[in-house]
Description:
Purple Acid Phosphatase, chain A, domain 2; 24% helix; alpha/beta; five-stranded parallel beta sheet; globular; 28% strand; 283 residues
Amino acid sequence: xxxxxxFIKIIALGDVQINRSKxxxxxxxxxxxxxxxxxxxxxxxxxxxxxxxVRADIQNPAHRVPPKMIKSFTEAKINAVTMAGNNSxxxxxxxxxxxxxxxxxxxxxxxxxxxxxxxxxxxxxxxINNFKLSILNFCSILRTGFEATKNIPGISPLHVSTFYEPLxxxxxxxxxxxxxxxxxxxxxxxxxxxxxxxxxxxxDFVITCFHWGVHFTYDLAIYQxxxxxxxxxxxxxxxxxxxxxxxxxxxxxxxxxxxxSLSNFIFDQxxxxxxxxxxxxxx
Length: 283
């Protein structure tokens, strides 16, 4: 373990999707800050590939970008990306594994996806200045067929059940709003906590990342604090959330921080698609 006065500087970025004519300039204005850190990682919101065919049920096909976009990540010296997200298999496993290959060939580790559930869920370890860091990544935004299973590739899953409870007697007050209750799958959460505990035993510092919640809102789903607190109880030193595309609350539990959503850091996609999605969810 490290002495109290020893530390490393880690920069965690939010959702990143880069698709521009000069990708090497994407991080231009924060390059000095990034270079002043010991380790840099983000949530990758797209595949970086020309392979695959978009699924028929995908409403926004913009989450695959050309391979030349890798220049943005190498120029920024990104060390790792988390990819347990709801767009990682928009173009199928060919695009996903082509992305993993491209990132790995450029020295960038990929967390939260794999050839099966064991590979997708496993902690990833990094030795930084004699300091051992571990990162885990899970996703509760699960399209059909996206989750990894024992024999199927995909993303690391955290299943969540949703229930709707009337706030008042519906016979006395027909049409009243309901309360949305969300409960994590306890078998999934137990497995996740075991992996976090394992990572804690084998590293100095544990970061657990969740792609979760509801997008385009500042409100949390009920299950999110339950999961975050369980992760910290299991040994996580920090919990980082992505997916909502806006900033969400910061919490402190047992003197450890929880960032429920870091929001977007860089998110390139056709403006008409962005405006269409925002208007849809802000009505």
